[in-house]
Amino acid sequence: MAILTWLHTAYGDDLINGIRSSLPDETIYEWPGDVAHNEIDVAILFRMPPGFLKPFPNVKLISATGAGIDHYLLDPDFPRDVPLVRVVDHDFAARMADYVLCWTLFHHRDVPHFLKAQKERRWAYKIMRSASDVTVGVMGLGQMGRLTCERLAFLGYDVRAWSRSEHQIKGVRCYAGKDALPDFLRDTEILVNLLPLTAETRGILGKKTFDRMPHGGVLITAARGGHLIENDVLDALDSGRLSAATIDAFPVEPLPETHPFWTHPNVYVTPHCSSTASCATIVDTFAENVRRFRSGAPLLNEVDLAAGY
């Protein structure tokens, strides 16, 4: 029995050192390297290529290093009979809520107006709307979406939320199901996407959605690149249907240097960094799941492969 690791380089040696320290009795291999393929029964992986797991016939537990798992499920060779777990905790949700609040305030308070005026040395006074007059709609009510709604409501925004199933959140108007989506979008001025990527949500950020929003709305998407129909976003921005878009996740990453999002005056690009799990969170969650796996206890944050999250 042994563990295979393929980890994000952004953590340097901290992540692998933390895993080794937390699981001192485990044999741990780092990829790429000299790996005993048949020994591997646990793998913690960051965005492995399709078919990566085929040479490891004895894998019995797979762990993501974050909350997103759609790239695993897009692999036609992914072993669907093997439990897949992910990293989701309060800290992860709080970081996402911080990201959404930052950009909601940025657009609500029209920061680009003042930055442009300063660059031009213009005293460009502008009356600001109250948060209570701004309707923010959040799509997705998992742990991150729920906390984001609560924090937006605390700041005084008129918050509504949409998800597949019924939810109740104090101070938030909740909508559920496909049939409720048009009503949810009708008054949503700032649309926040925190949905999981599934067959039903792929391509949801496209013309049909934007046309149901008030003219001049704003898009903030910090979920998965597969939600975007990129040409529809550009068309909506160029027509004025959308006034701005903050985008953190893209169908192709890193975003190609020639992509029009980089230079569009109303697009704000961030490099898929809206909510990076802390090293301690990844280590603690993974180590606990390994211990549970070895003892036969229920796993933390196990993915429902049928639902896609």
What keyword list fits this structure?
Rossmann fold, alpha/beta, single chain, 9 helices, 309 residues, 29% helix, 12 strands
Q: What is the CATH H-level superfamily of the largest domain?
A: NAD(P)-binding Rossmann-like Domain
State the CATH class of the largest domain. Alpha Beta
State which percent range the strand residues make up: 15-25%
**Largest sheet: spatial strand order:** 8-7-6-9-10-11-12
What's the number of structural domains?
2
Please, what is the average pLDDT?
A: 95
Order of SSEs, N→C? EHEEEHEHHEHEEHEHEHEEH
Helix content range:
25-40%
Structural class based on helices, strands and sheet pairing: alpha/beta
Number of helix segments? 9
Radius of gyration: 21 Å
- How many β-strands, per DSSP? 12
User: Which residues sit in consecutive blocks of at least 5 with pLDDT less than 50?
Assistant: none
CA(first)-CA(last) distance: 28 Å
